[in-house]
């Protein structure tokens, strides 16, 4: 299971320069959303220049690269594969040239009808360079731009693509941002020194010392040119379907999404977890890093001491060579070590955000037991993950999801915990503060906000999108 991508678009007024540097810093702030590949496209006054490569932002760019990307407008992307293979062809921004110009595309999300759309395009003679759904979007958009003016072309595109999309385009010297009518993946607008930006999360705006203006609305198109911003509401749905997992795990705790600070949401989840699943223990401890804020909430509500018992090594890069089987224990310890004196003889409440396959919880319960824990009570800040995500998370298949096949008691036995408690759906929704009808909880319920072949999309959950004139 990997998280999806991060996108950014920046347009400074014409006298300003150095959009690439600002995009580069923003991508650093969004690195948690994808570590597989990174890229930046800028418009240098004549054409679009792109640099993208596999790796972390720090590995892909250096001063010389950034200096070559001259211009006051551009977009950027960090990628974790959700659709298409992990290879340079699928990295973004993806550039498509056509007779009237060129367009670079950066996408966070996943289309559920890209196979059909691609087949139709291929039958009509289109040739694809990558296997990602982003290229399908780019081809469709270019075709619409040949026939319609901008807002109409974007509306026509939205009518064809189904799924989640927070898109940022560089179209000549114009930045466009388009959010799907259900607002599944996040996208926000910021005001920065001499211009505007759009980004997956507000932390990118903070990094540039900018001001969060607001979220891009579901179904809205934002157009930024020469430091000026315009908005077109192209579609409206009966109900939005914001991804619940952004609140549980993906987004950084310092991001503000839909007016909510993610940190506060997670503290609330932890506190609801403590209310719903108390445990007789003396220490609350997180599985770092994603369990930290949840554990703070659990500690605040229960009054049980908060103490860190596990230390994560944050410097294990992608290039880390996995040791052979008999060094596996070393590898695990290298990534995460126990603070033995905080554990020995203690009854622990171990807090994490989610159990996917059960591997992490099981391994860590085992580690803290070896370090002398007397009891280990596992508490999870999401309800059981029962179903795959088709809308932007590269989650495990249904076969691999432990909660799809086992009861809570069954999972408890597999991870060898003394007790296991998941926050309830109500506890989670209450903590987020958005009505459940306005959230996508497909991975927790198996009910999706868009029709997906072989899956349930209950009538009452179906959000009809109306395309406004
Ligand atoms: P598992 O070991 O398969 O049960 O996965 C659960 C662990 O993966 C938890 O510690 C989560 O913090 C972490 N996790 C949850 N969602 C993701 C994701 N999308 N990408 C990477 N790790 C994740």
Automatic annotation (TrEMBL):
Cofactor mode of binding and number, as noted: Binds 1 [4Fe-4S] cluster per subunit. Binds 1 Mg(2+) ion per subunit.
GO molecular function: 4 iron, 4 sulfur cluster binding; amidophosphoribosyltransferase activity; magnesium ion binding
Limits of the Glutamine amidotransferase type-2 domain: 5-227
Known catalytic reactions: 5-phospho-beta-D-ribosylamine + L-glutamate + diphosphate = 5-phospho-alpha-D-ribose 1-diphosphate + L-glutamine + H2O
Pathway given in the UniProt record: Purine metabolism; IMP biosynthesis via de novo pathway; N(1)-(5-phospho-D-ribosyl)glycinamide from 5-phospho-alpha-D-ribose 1-diphosphate: step 1/2
Residues that bind [4Fe-4S] cluster: 243, 389, 440, 443
Group of enzyme by EC: transferase
Needed co-factor(s): [4Fe-4S] cluster; Mg(2+)
Gene Ontology biological process terms, A to Z: 'de novo' IMP biosynthetic process; purine nucleobase biosynthetic process
Binding site for Mg(2+): 290, 352-353
Keywords attached to this entry: 4Fe-4S, Glutamine amidotransferase, Glycosyltransferase, Iron, Iron-sulfur, Magnesium, Metal-binding, Purine biosynthesis, Transferase
Cross-referenced InterPro entries: GATase_2_dom, Ntn_hydrolases_N, PRTase-like, PRTase_dom, PurF, PurF_N
The organism's place on the tree of life at top rank: Archaea
PROSITE patterns registered for this protein in UniProt: GATASE_TYPE_2
EC number: 2.4.2.14
Alphabetical list of SUPFAM superfamilies matching this protein: N-terminal nucleophile aminohydrolases (Ntn hydrolases) (SSF56235), PRTase-like (SSF53271)
Active site, renumbered: 5
NCBIfam families: purF
Task performed by this protein: Catalyzes the formation of phosphoribosylamine from phosphoribosylpyrophosphate (PRPP) and glutamine.
Family the UniProt entry places it in: In the C-terminal section; belongs to the purine/pyrimidine phosphoribosyltransferase family.
Protein name as catalogued: Amidophosphoribosyltransferase
Organism from which the protein derives: Methanothrix soehngenii (Methanosaeta concilii)
Gene: purF
């Amino acid at each position: 299971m990997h998280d999806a991508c991060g996108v950014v678009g920046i347009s400074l007024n014409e006298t300003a320069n150095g959009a690439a540097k600002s995009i580069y810093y923003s991508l650093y702030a969004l690195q948690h959303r994808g570590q597989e590949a990174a890229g930046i496209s800028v418009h240098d006054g004549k054409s679009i220049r792109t640099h993208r490569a596999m790796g972390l932002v720090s590995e892909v760019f250096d001063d010389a690269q950034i200096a070559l990307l001259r211009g006051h407008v551009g977009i950027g992307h960090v990628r974790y594969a959700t659709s298409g293979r992990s290879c340079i062809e699928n990295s973004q921004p993806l550039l498509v040239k056509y007779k009237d110009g060129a367009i670079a595309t950066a996408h966070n999300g996943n289309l559920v009808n890209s196979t059909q759309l691609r087949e139709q395009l291929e039958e009509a003679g289109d040739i694809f360079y990558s296997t990602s759904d982003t290229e399908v979007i780019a081809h469709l958009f270019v075709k619409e731009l040949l026939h319609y003016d901008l807002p109409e072309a974007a509306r026509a595109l939205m009518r064809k693509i189904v799924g989640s999309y927070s898109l940022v385009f560089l179209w000549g010297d114009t930045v466009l941002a388009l959010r799907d009518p259900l607002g599944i993946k996040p996208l926000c607008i910021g005001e920065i020194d001499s211009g505007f930006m759009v980004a997956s999360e507000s932390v990118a705006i903070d990094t540039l010392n900018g001001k969060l203006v607001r979220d891009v609305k579901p179904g809205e198109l934002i157009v930024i040119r020469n430091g000026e911003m315009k908005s077109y509401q192209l579609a409206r749905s009966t109900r939005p379907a914001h991804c619940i997992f952004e609140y549980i795990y993906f987004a950084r705790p310092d991001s503000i999404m839909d007016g909510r600070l993610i940190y506060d949401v997670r503290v609330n989840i932890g506190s609801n977890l403590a209310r719903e699943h108390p445990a007789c223990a003396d220490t609350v401890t997180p599985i770092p890093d994603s369990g930290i804020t949840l554990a703070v909430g659990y500690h605040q509500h229960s009054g049980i001491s908060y103490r860190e018992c596990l230390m994560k090594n944050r410097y294990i890069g992608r290039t880390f060579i996995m040791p052979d089987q008999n060094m596996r224990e070393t590898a695990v310890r290298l990534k995460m070590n126990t603070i033995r004196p905080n554990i020995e003889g203690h009854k622990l409440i171990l807090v994490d955000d989610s159990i996917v396959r059960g591997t992490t919880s099981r391994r860590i319960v085992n580690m803290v037991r070896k370090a002398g824990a007397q009891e280990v009570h596992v508490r999870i800040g999401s309800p059981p993950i029962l179903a795959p995500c088709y809308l932007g998370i590269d989650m495990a298949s249904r076969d691999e999801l432990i909660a799809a096949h086992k009861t809570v008691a069954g999972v408890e036995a597999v991870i060898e915990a003394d007790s296991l408690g998941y926050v309830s759906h109500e506890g989670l929704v209450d903590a987020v503060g958005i009505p459940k009808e306005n959230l996508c909880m497909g991975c927790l319920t198996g009910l999706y906000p868009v029709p997906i072949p072989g899956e349930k999309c209950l009538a009452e959950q179906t959000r009809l999108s109306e395309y406004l004139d």
